[in-house]
Structures
1.
Amino acid sequence: MEIYFVRHGLVDYTTGQLSYKGIDFSKRLPSLIPDKVDFIGCDNEQRCKETILHLEIKNGIKAKNYAKSDFANKIPLDDCPKDGTSIICYRMETINYLLNKLQIPLFTQQNRNTGYEFIIHFKKNNKTQTYNYINTGFKK
């Protein structure tokens, strides 16, 4: 199992949609992720849907959308294929439920803006689980 946790792109809060930087991130995102993706899960917020648009196009798959309560119940993790590669696009209000389940350090109020700076890469096989951070080149 391999999961890439991607925070939504930067938002223009006057429109509720991705800002120019957020759109640029969305377009660049497929180059930061491996070529073969088996599953895409997405918070049901518009900013998350816009962020993974180019991943959907590149991989020819539609993202499954989740409500905040689904994240709280860790349902996106249950839907990730055990022998595949998954992307989960999140907003800060939902990700800590999943990180806690996987024993990955949680975001705090102090470090929440760093979520734009990296993608969390989680990998699990029969014996071990690891995680690392992939730099996105973006900052808030």
Note: The beta strands are 2-7, 11-12, 17-18, 39-43, 64-66, 85-90, 118-124, 129-135.
2.
Amino acid sequence: FRGSCFDTNDTLHYHYYCLNDTEKERLKAFFTHPHRPNKGDVPIANPTKGAFSSRRNITSYKHCNLRIINDFNHGHKALIDVEKVTINLLSKVIHMEDALRLLNNLDQLRSSVLPPAPYNKCINRCLALHSGHKAAFDNILKILNLMLVKKVKPDSITAMNFLVACAECGEFEAAKQLLFDVDGQPSWLSQWELTPNIALCNAYLTVCAKTGKFNEAYEFLNVASPNNMQRRWPNAKPPIKPDRITAMNFLVACAECGEFEAAKPLLFDVNGQPSWLSQWGLTPNIALCSAYLTVCAKTGKFNEAYEFLNVASPNNMQRRWPNAKPPIKPDLITATNFLVACAECGEFEAAKPLLFDVNGQPSWLSQWELTPNIALCSAYLTVCAKTGKFNEAYEFLNVASPNNMQRR
């Protein structure tokens, strides 16, 4: 190697350096496999730490992506290693163009099959990279199109991430195209040679809830409907069998869309017809019961919530399903949801038996073998605020009061 330098009189001098045998071997190895640094080399940026806060970092991460691809092409790494590194890098990008650049690098893989996992991650990442839903969703459609152009086969995770994006961005019509034949065009799933599973059906119910399409959710789930999910795909493998997440997502849709009456056939026998849950071979759990209380709160059906929870009521949730497995046991979330219903419906007196002994009767909480926590106490203060009971709130919180929450 020839180098140059200036002395103190600004005179140019040349100097020469000869590599020893060890250095020659290292240099040869570097140019043969530039993707495999020796321990003494300067390390590149760590793909698992920090975001792309500068263009310099972006360049380093891009080199890391190319290096693992070169490793694969030379037989030093497996395809799963390329996926992991690329997904790690995609989780750090802060600009969409950098995410697309990382995906385009995958074209250099000497593989007959490109993995869908990085594209799936990029679909998920779009929601974080854009403040506006329209821009995010437009880029998600670009990524799906990119997969088709590059002949990357979408999988069920692609579909799931797309439905999550539809829910977040309020894109109901796009969710339909994914699952159903529309205007004579086969669904995207069928074009991808996939059939829905229960997880995708549950995600579709969330899209319906987020976009106010309650009728579609009801038809999709209603046992008696010719368009329910089980009849739509009778040959799905594994067979589509509703589960408790299905029921939970439907109750969320009922709450979001203000549909109390529709929630009843899910849980209860109505007009001689067994509940949907019983037809699915399921029994409610405490999470579903708590979600039903939220439906009552959102729809102003306080009497139904009170009867459902009241320890003395013949229609309370524990008496309704005595053989539920696991047994239905109210918890602090149940209590919080009931206090929310009391606040929303302006029912101060009904909140008291939950927390306090009234007329010689122990509180519901004590009968459930629970003690209040600060979240419940705070929820009670909200009930007081919503119902104009300031004196009760003051006594409950006042440090000097014999009835403050800590002394109780």
Note: Confidence is low (pLDDT under 50) at residues 1-15, 34-56.
3.
Amino acid sequence: MWSTPLDSALFAAIDAREAALRLARTPGLAWLDGGLTHGREGRFSFVSTAPCEVVEQLLPDPSPLALLDRLRFPARPTTPSSLSPDEVPLWVGHVSYDAVAPRPHDDLALASVPALRFARYDAWCAFDHLDQRAYLVGDDQAACERLHERLHGAPLSDDELHFESELVDVTPAE
């Protein structure tokens, strides 16, 4: 795994939300939001876009979970940072209920619905909520440089943010 701190000027200007807004025009946005109220698992937030690989298994497959065995995990040598390679996500996706408990589907339209879909990202913006630092982490320096270039894009305008007012807070009640 290759990593570097975000340059101080860029880090001062953005947080995970702003990074997501800057990357939102690129297909495949993934935002894994953390926060210190979520314990150790919430220490970091991760934002990325433009997956380097996407795999899926359709509903009609008789054993869709076999896809999980085919996900590749490239070797990730480390460079110094506060993140270890096992803390950085590689594959992000979903497993549908039908993949675990299949039921017959008569609808032909459902034949094209993925039971599982995963995207692999070769670089992430990692925001450390404990140390108040941000890093670019990834497979190699070239992947991190590509993500850094995408981060320098303009954030979405206020007009493009109209959906934000429709977002629902799903924070569990204490």
Note: The mean pLDDT is 77.
4.
Amino acid sequence: MALGPSLQLAATAAAAAFAAAPAAREPLVVILEVNGSARAEAVVVYRGADGFYVPSAVLAELGVALEGLGRIEIEGVEQLRIGDVGGAEAAFDAATQRLRLTLPAMAFRPHTLSYGAEPPGPMTPSGRGLFLNYDLILSAAGEGAGLGGS
């Protein structure tokens, strides 16, 4: 049996909407640990069939380079799928509510360290000036008074 054009169009739109619908994502309140260093505050992350989603702001705070990574919005918060970070591994411990992320060094923003002294700041240009050093002495003894200076 052939479908009419309007029914066929509706069926195609329904199939596209089903394919575009996000998979069910479960919110989790976890302690986030990145390369062995735990974050002090708990974070709301989402677990889906395709991996974990962590707020982009939290990853940026931890020094992860976010340039070129796809972001999605879940409940008004920009999230990043951990699987999109090349070489990243995620392990969730339900007993301790801890999400352990292992990220390669290339996933972080580059930092420059210096072992030398800070470079001197800009010098103030010299100009004409005057310095006056004075030492005044006033003494009074009996009927005489004296004023001296050096």
Note: Helices lie at 5-20, 56-61.
